Amino acid sequence: MTERLQMVNRKEPLSIRCQCDLVSVSRGSFYYKPLGETEENLHIMRLMDEHYMERPSEGVIRMRDFLFTLGIVANHKRIRRLLRLMGIMAIYPKKNLSRLGQAKYIRPYLLRDLKITRPNQVWAIDITYIPMPKGFLYLTALIDVYSRYVVGWGISNSLDASCSLNVTKEAIGRYGKPEIINSDQGSQFTCHEWIELLDREEIKISMDGKGRAIDNIFIERFWRSVKWDYVYIKVPADGLELYSGLKDYMDYYNNRLCHQGIDHQIPATLYKSAA
User: Which residues have C-beta within 8 Å of that of residue 85, sequence separation ≥ 6?
Assistant: First the structure.
C-alpha cells in the first residue's frame, strides 16, 4: 500500500478520487474529512479512548463516573452513542466496530488451548478508533501472533469491510497465507465478502467468543502500544500526517522494538528467522 499511496499526487490534474481508484487505495488512507461531531464530543471521545486503554473492563456507567471526576457531565445515552461510534464497548460485544454481523457467518473460537509455535500459524486482525483534531479515523491491523510482527495495516474513514479486505489481501500477497485468522464478531468479519475471501484462500476462520475481547489479547496490547507510544503523544494534524507517522511507528515496532512477550526479541527477526 505504501508504494501505491505515494503515487497519489495533489498536483496532478487527475482528481484525488480517480487517482486513488486507479491505484486501489482508499481515499481515507490519503486524507480524512471530519465526521460531524462537536469539539466537545471529540474531546470526550479522546478522554474515553485513553481511559479505555487503561481500564478496558469499564462500561458506560463507570465511564460516566470517570468523566464526572474530570468535571464533565454527560448522560449515559450520550456516552453509549460515542462509545459505539468508537467501537470500544467493554465486556460485551462492541456495537459499531464489532456490531454483530450475520449470524450465519459467525465461526467458533479456535485458539483456546492451541499452541502457537511458528509464524503464519495464526494471524489476528482488528480495528481501532484514532482521534484526530477535527474528527477521527479507523486503523486496521493484522498481526502474526507468534512473532507479534505486523504483516499489514491500513487507515480508513469508514467502517465498511473494504479496508480489512484490502489489508488481508495485501498481506497474503506479500507473506503467504496463514493457517488461521482470528477476529472479533464485528460486521466487517461476519459478512459474505470476508468469509468468501478466507474460504477461497483455505484459511481457517476463528472468532472471539461473544463479549470476550481477551480472546484477541495480542492485538489489544498492540493498540495500547500504538496509542500510548505515538497517537496520544504526537497527535497528527491530518490523514497524511497520520499515515506517515504510523508508517514510521510500524517500522519501529516491527524492526527495532524488543517485546517482553516474545522473550525481548524483535518481531521482524523472530518472524523471518522462523518462517
Answer: 37, 45, 96, 129
Q: Give 182's strand partners.
A: 124, 206
Helix (H) or strand (E) holding 206: strand 204-207
pLDDT in tens, 23-76: 555 655 555 454 567 888 888 888 888 887 777 767 888 888 888 888 999 998
> From CA 74, how far away is CA 78, in angstroms rounded?
6
Of 221, 209, 56, 230, nearest in space to 148 by CA: 221
Question: What are the E-state strand segments in 24-167?
Answer: 122-132, 135-144, 149-156
Looking up cell 474528527 gives 135
**pTM of structure:** 0.72
The CB-side HSE value for 121 (13 A sphere, CA atoms) comes to 14
Q: Give the SS3 label for residue 261.
A: helix
Question: 88: closest CA among 126, 115, 128?
Answer: 128
Cell triple for 110: 479456535
Of residues 24 and 123, more confidently modeled: 123
Question: The cell 464489532 sits on which residue?
Answer: 98
CATH pick for 103-274 out of 3.30.420.10, 3.30.1330.60, 3.40.50.720, 2.60.120.340: 3.30.420.10
Contact present, 115 and 200 (Cβ < 8 Å): no
> If you compute the radius of gyration of the chain from its CA atoms, what whole number of angstroms results?
18
C-alpha 233/C-alpha 226 separation (Å) is: 10
Angle at 213 between CA 211 and CA 217, to 5 degrees: 160
Q: How far apart are CA 8 and CA 25, in angstroms?
A: 9
- Rounded Cα distance between 114 and 119, Å, is 14
Which residues are bridge partners to 221 per DSSP? Answer: none
